[in-house]
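Re: Re: ligand-bound prediction request (bumping)

Still looking for help on this. To restate: I need the protein modeled with magnesium ion bound, output as structure tokens. Inputs repeated here so nobody has to scroll up.
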Amino acid sequence: MKSGKTSATIILILIVSLSVSCGGDGASVQPYSETRFALGTTCSITVYRKKDMKHLGEAFEAVNRVENLMSVNLEDSEISGLNNAAGKGRVELSGETFSLLEKSKAFAAVSGGAFDPTVGPLVSLWNIGNEGARVSGRREILDALTLVDYRRLELFPDTSTAALPLEGMKVDLGAIAKGYAADAAVKVLRDAGVPYGIVNFGGNVYALGERYGEGPWRIGIQDPEDERGNYVGIVKIEDQAVVTSGKYERFFVEDGVRYHHILSTLDGKPVDNGIASVTVVDRDSARADAFSTLLFVLGLEEGMRLAAETPYLRAVFIMEDKSVYTSMDPGTWFSINDDRYTLKGEER
Ligand code: AMP
Ligand code: MG
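Reply:
Sorry for the wait, this slipped through. Here it is.
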């Protein structure tokens, strides 16, 4: 009846040759990579100079720190503390958690609640990607929806405290925390003087610097219909994040219907609006992560409008009918390399 898939699926494919000729000195560039399981997914960090390897451990420590603060799956995380105190009172938070909550609330506001960090009760109800996921009933969905409202998440900057006023309310940062963790890991590498590298946390990619100092990295966007790592197109970036939200990431199938993990805060069900995936390119990986989810929920028309008016942010919408839209002239930064897909530039 069900076929679950974990978010360990690597969504973006790095088109990085294993050994290439570098710069004028002809030296060979070798990847030095470490992979760990964190944030519910496979996380890998790659650097290209042997001497940078010693910073991989520190970068993963930053990831662990973020996970320990923000995971809803860890009973003693700060977010779990906030959720456990729902309806009871305020909870003091670290500056990091507090400011990500502030950002999340701002992203919720800008999207009219399409992205909502208090989506937790719905996420728990559907339980997608975990054992026991099942189709939720109308009544229980409506009950959960009454607890989803970012405007009711109370944030008190003076004391770095937060509160959820109703029992049962629940913050879930699943749509932004991986991106934030990627920012944190990149900061460690950057502060240590690492000039280039790739952070890939289950498809939340950050391409640090240039590709071995030789111009843009080329990051493939996963074909939403193909699990084998084929890609629809390539984005070329330097020093930026590329994050994809897709229907194929976490889902289960019941009676031939596929239920995925991105939920509508209007009807409480998996979003069904013709979008197969949204990829966002941005300097801020947390924002790219939040926006990939947010634009997916908003839908093509509204999402394209919001992406176009958000400074520095670029988005690629891949539709179920295999049409592809970019929020900014694809120019040299995006190209399709699968002729079953069509770029719909002119009609915009
Ligand atoms: P992503 O893979 O970044 O698109 O994030 C999806 C995850 O975000 C889900 O697994 C949920 O934990 C959470 N989520 C689902 N729907 C929403 C929503 N409408 N707003 C905010 N977070 C959501
Ligand atoms: Mg996201």
